[in-house]
UniProtKB/TrEMBL annotation:
<dbReference type="InterPro" id="IPR045760">
    <property type="entry name" value="DAP_DH_C"/>
</dbReference>
<feature type="domain" description="2,4-diaminopentanoate dehydrogenase C-terminal">
    <location>
        <begin position="142"/>
        <end position="344"/>
    </location>
</feature>
<dbReference type="InterPro" id="IPR036291">
    <property type="entry name" value="NAD(P)-bd_dom_sf"/>
</dbReference>
<protein>
    <recommendedName>
        <fullName>2,4-diaminopentanoate dehydrogenase C-terminal domain-containing protein</fullName>
    </recommendedName>
</protein>
<dbReference type="Pfam" id="PF19328">
    <property type="entry name" value="DAP_DH_C"/>
</dbReference>
Length: 355
């Protein structure tokens, strides 16, 4: 039995909560850290739309630090190294969707603080998800198992965020709806943070597969909306940012060897000059052999489902990649438990046989 704390009960955190309550008898919820005042003191089961479990969510970080737990599922909108260090130093392992994907290329001062906290608490930390995570960290390695040689590896993510309910992330963090001139890899603290985690992923692939990269560059092209769009309770006005094409490119001797490209829109006006891969993720390896795989997560391939349900399925995938890692993270030696270091992550009873 693993005692877990949920830190953040947004879109991804809620998928973790419902999975724990409905499908993971080996995990027991012993706490939840929330930010919203109206969630403070609420029963965690009720917050997740389930029966009460007799454990309440709290905005009080000290109270969370005092709870005895094996692992914290850390899924806030804006991640803080200080939070994670405090959790690790208190003896709790941390599994997160937000950052800590490739410590070798993290800010060295942050990395040292995290390592000191792991040492103090004999704890470990793992960062993963869907992208960054499985599609940029697990799948490339899995395909590389069939490679004799690789010349280039590219991952393209094409997504329209109009139906992504986390509008705080879309508008406040990712700056959709802002002037196109204001979008750059260093424009805001969050855009810089976001760019740094994808940069880390390119380094991760390059370092793990021996690309011997000299540098990883980040560029973004922002595209303006032709007309107004209503996105949940947000108006995205015509003329403001409705498309962001990011590229994080790993170069050796000036040649692009590893690249992650995102083709993100809000309002579904797809720029005609952009490449048009299928929606979802396309991983392409040029080499011997050359390989390509396309990934999409949907609510179902067979039954009818709403667009909102389909979109939620990417949150489910993000959440499960990290939730399913809890036993491995708890078993890992103190320090960073990276995707390359952990065993392949899966839940052994995912078909749900009865005990
Ligand atoms: N690796 C991947 O593939 C991947 C994919 C998707 C998302 N993510 C990351 O996962 C995390 C959660 O995403 P999400 O879609 O669940 O986001 P979300 O729906 O916007 O959830 C936001 C969460 O942030 C909390 N919050 C509110 N104010 C905050 C503040 N000032 N500082 C920090 N957190 C605050 C909310 O608290 P309450 O609990 O009170 O509501 C909620 O738990 C984000 O860091 C996101 O970037 C990673």
């Amino acid at each position: 039995m693993y005692r877990v704390i949920q830190w953040g009960t947004g879109a991804v955190g809620t998928e973790m909560l419902t999975a724990i309550l409905d499908h993971r008898p080996e995990l027991r919820l012993v706490g939840a850290r929330v930010y919203a005042d109206d969630k403070d003191g609420a029963d965690i089961g009720t917050l997740a739309g389930r029966d009460p479990i007799g454990v309440c969510a709290t905005t009080d970080v000290d109270a969370i630090l005092g709870v005895d737990a094996d692992c914290v599922l850390y899924t806030p909108r804006t991640a803080r190294v200080d939070d994670v260090c405090a959790l690790l130093a208190s003896g709790k392992n941390v599994a997160t969707t937000a950052f800590m994907f490739h410590p070798r290329r993290m800010n060295p001062a942050d990395r040292d603080r995290v390592l000191a906290a792991c040492e103090a608490g004999a704890s470990s930390v793992h960062g993963s998800g869907i992208n960054p995570g499985n599609l940029s960290g697990v799948l490339p390695l899995a395909l590389a198992g069939m490679s004799r040689t690789i010349e280039t590896l590219t991952l393209q993510e094409r997504a329209d965020w109009s139906v992504y309910e986390s509008t705080g992330i879309t508008f406040d963090n990712m700056a959709f709806g802002q002037p196109v001139e204001s979008i750059s890899p260093t424009a805001t603290e969050f855009l810089a943070f976001n760019s740094s985690i994808f940069t880390e992923q390119v380094w991760f692939i390059g370092d793990t597969l021996g690309a011997d990269l000299d540098e990883v560059t980040a560029t973004v092209e922002a595209v303006a909306a032709q007309r107004d769009h209503q996105i949940f309770d947000h108006l995205l006005p015509a003329g403001t940012t409705a498309g962001q094409r990011w590229k994080w490119t790993g170069l050796r001797d000036g040649q692009a060897l590893v690249e992650i490209e995102t083709l993100w829109t809000v309002g579904n006006e797809y720029p005609t000059h952009w490449p048009a891969p299928r929606h979802g993720w396309t991983l392409t390896i040029e080499g011997e052999p050359s390989m390509q795989t396309h990934f999409v997560a949907l609510a179902s391939f067979s039954r009818p489902a709403s667009m909102a349900e389909h979109v939620r399925s990417a949150n489910v995938a993000t959440a499960m990649q990290v939730l399913n890692a809890v036993p491995a993270v708890c078993a890992a030696a103190p320090g960073f438990a990276t995707t390359a270091a952990l065993p392949l992550i899966y839940y052994g009873n995912v078909f749900g046989r009865q005990p």
